[in-house]
């Protein structure tokens, strides 16, 4: 018995010695792998805030400093779904000194820079738990180019389940240089150096000598910039389903979101006595030049494009003739009604999903059935336009505004480019037979009346955002409050009142589709419904049960599935997350989780002081058929109309833009359908701020 007891003591002593020897490693594992203290939404939000604070400088947060110094991405590969394969690839690139240096411009359209950013995204996307995501982000923040890091982190949060509940700070406060005139950035530096807080007005580019100045408020709106860049993060052209899921109807959404941006731009031109934007042609002059008046944080000023220049071949990108060949091949596919896949078999595009395939080849995305043959019309065109200021690299200029999704809409040529592509899509949709009365009718459901509760009034307000992240820190120089002030289009909140009669005999799910359409062109000529329907903008789409009998549905403009509210400021996000963490309670920012969507204040076009009349179209369709095969309570919220639902199938089976996406040679077909109604509404612009 005694011998057995002594042996046991020896074994226990040996175990203690072994544990003591392993103790430092054990402590490290605890510090890096414990997910208990960092798994709540509040902790995650705080981590993201800290990772993005002063992105061009070393992190100032002790916990992130410790991780950046001691964490080994390959130390425990069990924390990855791929057993560390993606991390191994990135670490090899880092150790071989192949990664882009810090303090250098970054563009998603640069193939090598995009490859590096996606290496980091792949690492983050393979993480099983939050500590893996956070620690890798903290480590590579100090190792990689800042632009690559920010992009990878944003798409990582958007597409990883670990990012659920996190609100990404507005990019105009993380990388302010991309959104703010150089003159204002210079004033911000001066304010920091003199320790005098200041708020500086941001002017739109151009002068009154340039008629495009009248609509600069639209393309240069920071909320619209965020919508555009975020849509391309939600539906990136580089996405492969191996990353985790399929991006449902991506190609069709690519068409629809850019069609709507172009239509909205034309509405603003109509509101400012301008002709609709003309499409771009490869063999014609680019009449409108553009001077961005902005600079990279590192890399110099954004290039200027002069007026009245012809397209030139761009070294290392494409010849103009290549673009014409690509365009012709796409038009041939539309004329033939099919796409030829890589293996030579044909894919019918004269069917409901045809426009999705067309969008895939025009962009083109990784979903393209034959990228080698059909090229990359959209993406290459962005680079071609961005480089026209220095097409042969003679002056070694950095990328132009068209080579960044967050700055592209600032250039009027963006809308010319997308009008050009929009007309390609229109040729396809016009190849379909028009809808008949039977196609359009929702038997037993009638729209008896449509009205607006409240006035439709637009105005410009003022908005401030922080420039703290635009200026460098100094050991002996404290931060002072520095803000930019911008003028933004806004409107009074209003409510739709839609009276419907349900004679089906029971409650029935209905889909309400609301569009605003111009009545006249810029010359005052009344438009036919067939011309009008392609110019309409989507105001809302929602699903609602309609009880038997006659009822009035009330729907606030604030609830639109097309729009998003103003995002909380970076300061507010930090404050709320810190309060939640310190107070031991969780954080609910779900109302702001998605940035993809038209700013809710820009739902209506500006109009004119004397007012403009528009057609308000309301179509009520069979919600059971529209949502057949979809789960859920149909209260999708958010911005599903143009941005879908993350990781899920698009919640509406109808074509985007239905019932106005097909040609309408005979208006009487629509006039005789009881579940579709239009009324004339008037929008008035108040030049002075309206409370």
Automatic annotation (TrEMBL):
Residues 625-638 have a biased composition (Basic and acidic residues). It comes from the Eukaryota. One of its GO terms (molecular function) is oxidoreductase activity. The keyword Signal applies. The keyword Transport does not apply. InterPro entries: Di-copper_centre_dom_sf, Hemocyanin/hexamerin, Hemocyanin/hexamerin_mid_dom, Hemocyanin_C, Hemocyanin_C_sf, Hemocyanin_N, Hemocyanin_N_sf, Ig_E-set. SUPFAM superfamilies: Di-copper centre-containing domain, E set domains, Hemocyanin, N-terminal domain. Residues 625-650 are annotated as: Disordered. Residues 1-22 form the signal peptide. Coiled coil: none annotated. Keywords: Signal. Residues 411-422 form the Tyrosinase copper-binding domain. Belongs to the tyrosinase family. Hemocyanin subfamily. This is Hemocyanin. It comes from Panulirus japonicus (Japanese spiny lobster). The gene is PjHc_2.
């Amino acid at each position: 018995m005694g011998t057995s007891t002594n042996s046991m003591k020896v074994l226990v002593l040996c175990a203690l010695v072994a544990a003591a020897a392993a103790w430092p490693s054990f402590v490290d594992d605890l510090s890096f792998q414990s997910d208990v203290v960092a798994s709540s939404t509040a902790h995650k939000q705080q981590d993201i805030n800290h990772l993005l604070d002063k992105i061009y400088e070393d992190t100032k947060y002790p916990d992130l400093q410790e991780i950046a110094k001691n964490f080994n991405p390959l130390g425990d590969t069990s924390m990855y779904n791929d057993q560390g394969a993606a991390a191994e690839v990135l670490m090899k690139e880092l150790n071989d000194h192949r990664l882009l240096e810090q303090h250098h411009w970054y563009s998603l359209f640069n193939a090598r820079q995009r490859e590096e950013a996606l290496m980091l995204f792949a690492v983050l996307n393979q993480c099983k738990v939050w500590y893996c995501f956070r620690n890798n982000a903290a480590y590579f923040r100090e190792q990689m180019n800042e632009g690559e890091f920010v992009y990878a982190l944003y798409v990582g949060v958007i597409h990883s389940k670990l990012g659920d509940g996190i609100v990404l700070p507005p990019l105009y406060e993380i990388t302010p240089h991309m959104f703010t005139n150089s003159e204002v950035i210079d004033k911000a530096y001066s304010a920091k150096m003199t320790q005098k807080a200041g708020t500086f007005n941001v002017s739109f580019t151009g002068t009154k000598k340039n008629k495009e100045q009248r609509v600069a408020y639209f393309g240069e709106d920071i909320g619209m910039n965020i919508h555009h860049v975020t849509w391309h993060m939600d539906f990136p052209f580089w996405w492969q389903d191996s990353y985790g899921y399929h991006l449902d109807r991506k190609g069709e959404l690519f068409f629809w979101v850019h069609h709507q941006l172009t239509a909205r731009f034309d509405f603003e031109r109509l509101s400012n006595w301008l002709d609709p934007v003309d499409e771009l042609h490869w063999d014609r002059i680019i009449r409108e030049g553009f001077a961005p008046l902005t600079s990279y944080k590192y890399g110099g000023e954004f290039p200027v494009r002069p007026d009245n220049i012809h397209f030139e071949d761009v070294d290392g990108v494409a010849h103009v003739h290549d673009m014409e060949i690509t365009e012709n091949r796409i038009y041939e596919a539309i004329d033939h009604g099919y796409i030829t896949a890589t293996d030579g078999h044909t894919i019918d595009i004269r069917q409901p999903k045809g426009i999705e395939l067309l969008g895939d080849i025009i962009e083109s995305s990784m979903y393209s059935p034959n990228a080698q043959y059909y090229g990359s019309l959209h993406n290459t065109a962005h680079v071609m336009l961005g480089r026209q200021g220095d097409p042969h690299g003679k002056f070694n200029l950095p990328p132009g505004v068209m080579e960044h999704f967050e700055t592209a809409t600032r250039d009027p040529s963006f809308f010319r480019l997308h009008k050009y592509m929009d007309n390609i899509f229109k040729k396809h949709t016009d190849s379909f037979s028009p809808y008949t009365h039977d196609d359009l009718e929702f038997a037993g459901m009638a729209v008896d009346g449509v009205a607006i509760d409240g006035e439709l009034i637009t105005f410009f307000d003022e908005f401030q955002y922080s420039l703290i992240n635009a200026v460098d820190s100094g050991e002996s120089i404290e931060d002072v409050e520095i803000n930019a002030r911008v003028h933004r289009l806004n409107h009074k909140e209003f409510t739709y009142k839609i009276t419907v009669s349900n004679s089906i005999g029971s409650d029935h799910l209905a889909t309400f589709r609301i569009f605003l359409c111009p009545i006249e062109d810029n010359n005052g000529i009344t438009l036919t419904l067939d011309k009008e329907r392609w110019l309409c903008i989507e105001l809302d789409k929602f699903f609602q049960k309609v009880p038997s009998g006659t009822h009035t549905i009330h729907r606030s403009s604030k609830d639109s599935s097309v729009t998003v509210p103003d995002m909380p400021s970076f300061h507010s996000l930090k404050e709320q997350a810190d309060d939640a963490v310190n107070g031991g309670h969780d954080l609910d920012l779900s109302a702001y989780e998605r940035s993809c969507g038209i700013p809710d204040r820009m739902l209506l076009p500006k109009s004119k002081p004397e007012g403009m009349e528009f057609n308000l179209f309301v179509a009520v369709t069979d919600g059971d058929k529209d949502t057949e095969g979809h789960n859920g309570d149909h209260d999708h919220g958010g911005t599903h109309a143009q941005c879908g639902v993350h990781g899920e199938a698009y919640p509406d089976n109808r074509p985007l833009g239905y019932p106005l996406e097909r040609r309408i040679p005979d208006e009487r077909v629509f006039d005789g359908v009881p579940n579709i109604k239009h009324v004339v509404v008037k929008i008035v612009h108040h030049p002075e701020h309206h409370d």
